[in-house]
Specification:
Length: 258
């Protein structure tokens, strides 16, 4: 890789989101105008991966300190996922690891700006979460968003990935503070008939960031809604007893959904 390519490498994932400031965007555009096929292909891969992971559409450029942390997350994802002796395999997985890093970092920033009563959200350990999902699995996953389940608040506050091969649902949620009275964040499915099924508990991955990987029988849940509730400590009952904090349309992410 030549020096111009190397200097722009970390910016390409942000360029795919439109998260560069004008001078940086002009620099990227000027480099691509030279006909650099390598960087054009890399940018296209980031865009494809970002769309596949349902990356948030940011309407404004993040502030400098957030952008720097975005870059740090991209670099961390690369460093943790790059195999020492298999560069061709890494090239195939790199866009998904970096896109997941950017997605979660931007999502944490958006969640931290969703209201003055919420404390700033620390960036999650996305490289670890991406590793748990499995880089190769990202390409086959369907995706959806989790929105704030409180009345009158429809802010995007998380994401889920459905892996049909493994039969697993991977969740990542932002901006949920600890609650001593209801310390458990539990994922549920509610089917079209109104029946509840407890899927499992989310674990704290970083301040304000919770993740989970749970099993789901997709064949029986074509119209199901996914919920995350706050629950008291202890085993799950037949249905939630605490408030809904997140919800998402699982049916839209399942095979065969329009």
């Amino acid at each position: 890789m030549n020096n111009p390519c190397k200097s722009l490498d970390d910016l390409l994932a942000l360029a795919a989101l439109g998260a560069l400031d004008p001078p940086e965007q002009a620099e990227v555009d000027a480099h691509l105008a030279t006909g650099c096929g390598r960087c054009a292909q890399q940018l296209a891969s980031f865009r494809e991966a970002s769309e596949g992971l349902n990356v948030l559409n940011v309407s404004m450029t993040p502030p400098p300190e957030v952008r720097e942390r975005l870059l740090l997350r991209v670099r961390a994802a690369k460093a943790q996922r790059e195999p020492k002796k298999a560069p061709s395999r890494w090239l195939a997985l790199a866009p998904y690891a970096a896109a997941a890093a950017v997605f979660a970092a931007v999502g944490a920033w958006v969640a931290s700006r969703s209201g003055p009563a919420r404390a700033p959200v620390a960036l999650p350990s996305v490289a670890q979460w991406t590793e748990e999902v499995g880089g190769a699995a990202l390409n086959r996953c369907s995706q959806g968003v989790l929105v704030d389940g409180r009345p009158g608040d429809d802010a995007t506050a998380g994401n889920f990935l459905w892996d049909p091969v493994a039969g697993q649902l991977h969740l990542i949620a932002f901006g949920l503070e600890d609650d001593a009275a209801n310390p458990t964040l539990r994922a549920w499915l509610k089917d079209e008939a109104g029946g509840w099924q407890a899927l499992g508990d989310l674990r704290r991955d970083a301040p304000g960031v919770h993740v989970a990987a749970v099993r789901v029988d997709a064949d029986r849940q074509p119209g199901a809604t996914l919920y995350v509730t706050r629950e008291p400590a202890g085993p799950a009952g037949p249905e939630p007893t605490g408030p809904v904090v997140l919800e998402g349309d699982l049916g839209a992410a399942l095979p065969g959904a329009e």
